[in-house]
Write a structure and sequence with these properties.
Length: 263
């Protein structure tokens, strides 16, 4: 098939997205989402349905990420149709099983995109392992919203008091933390404590303003503003934390902070 110029442009956008996804380049991935991105997911799991708008789509994707630790293994093919671009991918999902042994699901998916204004405008997901996906998401452990609120309130109080011991007391022994684009993944209480201590030392005026918290089965998404100062000048940025929970504690924390800006 010979693609038109529009087809080639769409394929190039989708290929750039795939390249960034494979490279773990989160900022480029996010920059390629259209403001009106719509994500359509089949099935009966909690992420199924139509998510309208960039924010709703990203929340669904972050929720899935928190429950699956999904990583792309291979982009098998990028195929241009008359109005869409289809991507054949293989993903690996993983988490700790109830017996403590790792649980892994490696499966193929088809992601069908449309492109508008050089960004992804729609995405429709087709699962090759539909029943395995449904079983995986149905079996994810749950933590009550009330427990999450109490846990995150204690954790937030620790941050406000700049008390790393109080913060870490809210985490599992094997907790992980990553400030995407700024730090590598820290594994375990000691390493995470050191990262938090460095962060607080580097930003003595660090504070946050909470905006919204969205609860999932075993995760929470916290949107907030971060405030600090650099060279005496006040700075702020929007930020998102994704927490995954296990045994009533924080098993992992992933942070995304946009570029700092002046008020």
């Amino acid at each position: 098939m010979t693609a038109s110029n529009d087809d080639r442009d769409a394929v190039e956008v989708v290929q750039a997205y795939c390249d960034a996804w494979l490279a773990g380049d989160t900022m480029t991935v996010l920059s390629l989402y259209h403001d009106d991105l719509t994500l359509e997911w089949p099935g009966r799991h909690r992420f199924a349905g139509v998510h309208v708008g960039q924010k709703a789509s990203i929340e669904a994707l972050i929720g899935l990420q928190s429950e699956t630790n999904r990583i792309p293994i291979e982009v098998v093919d990028v195929m241009a149709g008359s109005n869409t671009v289809a991507v054949s991918v293989v993903e690996r999902w993983s988490r700790d099983g109830d017996d403590g042994e790792p649980k892994v699901l490696e499966h193929a998916r088809i992601l069908e995109y449309t492109v508008q204004d050089q960004q992804l405008r729609t995405c429709r997901v087709f699962e090759s392992a539909h029943y395995d996906v449904e079983d995986w998401l149905a079996s994810a452990s749950a933590i009550s919203d009330a427990d999450v609120v109490e846990l995150l309130t204690r954790c937030s109080a620790g941050w406000a008091a700049r008390d790393v011991k109080a913060i870490i007391a809210c985490h599992t022994d094997d907790t992980t933390f990553e400030n995407h684009g700024l730090t590598v993944v820290a594994h375990g209480n000691k390493a995470v404590s050191e990262v938090f201590e460095t962060l607080l030392a580097d930003h003595p005026e660090l504070s946050t303003t909470p905006l919204r918290t969205t609860f999932g089965a075993d995760h929470a998404i916290v949107e907030y503003e971060v405030h600090t100062s650099i060279d005496g000048g006040a700075m702020w940025a929007p930020a998102v934390d994704v927490f995954r929970f296990r045994d009533g504690l924080i098993a992992s924390k992933d942070t995304w902070v946009s570029e700092l800006r002046s008020p």
